[in-house]
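Q: I'm writing a short methods note and want an example of a predicted protein-small molecule complex. Could you take the sequence and the SMILES for flavin-adenine dinucleotide and return the bound structure as tokens? Please keep the output block clean; save any remarks for afterwards.
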Amino acid sequence: MPDSVHVVWYKRDLRVDDHRPLAEAAERGPVLPLYVAEPSIAAGDDFRPRQWTLIREALIELRARLAKRGQPLVVRCGEMPGVLETLHEAVGPLRLWAHEETGNERTFARDRRVRAWADAQDIPFMEVPSRGVIRGPHDRDHWSDRWEAYMDRPLVHPPEALAPVPEIDPGPMPTHADLGLRPSTAALQQIGEAEAHRTLDSFLYDRGRTYRRAMSKPGPATTECSRMSVHLAYGTISLRRMVYELRRRRDELQGQRGAAADDRRKALSSFDSRLHWHSHFTQKLEDAPRIETESYIPAFDALRADDWDSELYEAWLTGHTGFPMVDACMRCLRTTGWLNFRMRAMLCSFAAYDCWLDWRRFAPTYGGLMADYVPGIHYPQVQMQSGTTGINQIRIYNPVKQGKEQDPDGSFIRRWVPELARLETTEYVHEPWRMSPIEQQAAGCVVGTDYPERIVDHLEAYHHAQDTIRTLRERPDVQEQAERILQQHGSRG
Ligand SMILES: Cc1cc2nc3c(=O)[nH]c(=O)nc-3n(C[C@H](O)[C@H](O)[C@H](O)COP(=O)(O)OP(=O)(O)OC[C@H]3O[C@@H](n4cnc5c(N)ncnc54)[C@H](O)[C@@H]3O)c2cc1C
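A: Understood, no commentary inside the block.
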């Protein structure tokens, strides 16, 4: 159909490099690259102003990159498939291209509506796999082989020129207000295709040597972890490009000797595993979209269903629990949109075990705080850290022990919890309640007045959670279900 306009529908793939739908469309005719900002998606509990700040920044760069090739990105604020309908009326016959996306319930329903619309209009809709995730029935035993094969395929070069669709106005870039959002006040990482490549290079060649040692410590992790998550989340770089560059770097290090090269090699190997996990976790939500709103084992939904305590939730969400490490981590996440893996797990554990909050109610808001929010990673992780998968070890983090181990000099806590900044004894920074009343007065930090009392008794909460979950896991019906979960979602090596 030579006269068709090829619409490339951008979602979480905001780049030109290694973008198969764009390259395939460019070979076939005029290309209309499209991004649709949808108020109905932005209205979700998991969507915060910070997400739109990042997407908008990435779209501005993408528009310029595409314009250089002959056709700027067309941006609309509205709902799909209505926007497509309008474009169809304006340009005539269409073909639609997109990457498959493992999103949340709302984006999944939207994708189905678009598919139904395209079918009804007889518009060919080509969806291309992304992130090493397999759509449809597949054999989990050979999943890793397929992942490797996908990563090994040659990267797709960006088209040099695009045949334009001049009759379509690129349109203004929607603002936060257009989407019904307040402006974001978060101090976020920069995003965009150029920044993604710069960040990856600096990790592979400069930062990152102490990645393995630093990744659990929230302070050092800020610069020693790759910080590629936000780029992967919005697709300003492809996972395949990352795997390619990391393996190229590994080959370069092949013959090199010495501690520095050894450290680098080990760091790259850990990084490689994590890129694999990115797809491995996303595959879980792709295979079972229900786990966004239902525990892996449905019996676990009843566990905390009637115990929601709004005061505990508010204290956790705003970083006022009286546990310095929990509060520091939450305040850091709220301000910057980023936190290292271990501390995200600790925050989740605190909500689920210490505060005994139902993960189904806190997970969307918690995800929305993350600049790199990816539903496919987030929901399986939240369930793992809340003990509702039925197959993973129950891991309850002790927030004081985590503070002492991961922030031994208390600098991270002092930075994010200014109430404790004047405490000179580091031991007290981790346990301010151990100061005598006179010491509290002298430090200008009276617990209960200047800094909250602890909102829960950790040890009591620990035993309650362990006993309750163990009892449930011993039930024969739960064990049967756990076996099925293991077959469907378990890692194979
Ligand atoms: C409760 C909870 C919720 C989380 N939610 C998200 C989320 O919404 N989005 C997100 O990208 N990560 C999430 N993570 C995983 C992890 O914390 C982040 O990927 C990581 O901190 C991002 O920083 P980085 O890019 O510097 O990571 P690096 O350590 O440099 O890792 C490189 C990449 O590997 C992937 N990765 C790393 N760890 C994991 C993991 N455990 N599972 C799956 N993929 C991983 C990410 O894509 C990451 O960008 C969550 C973890 C927990 C415990």
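A: Remarks, as requested: The chain has a mean pLDDT of 96. The beta strands are 5-10, 31-37, 74-77, 94-99, 125-128.
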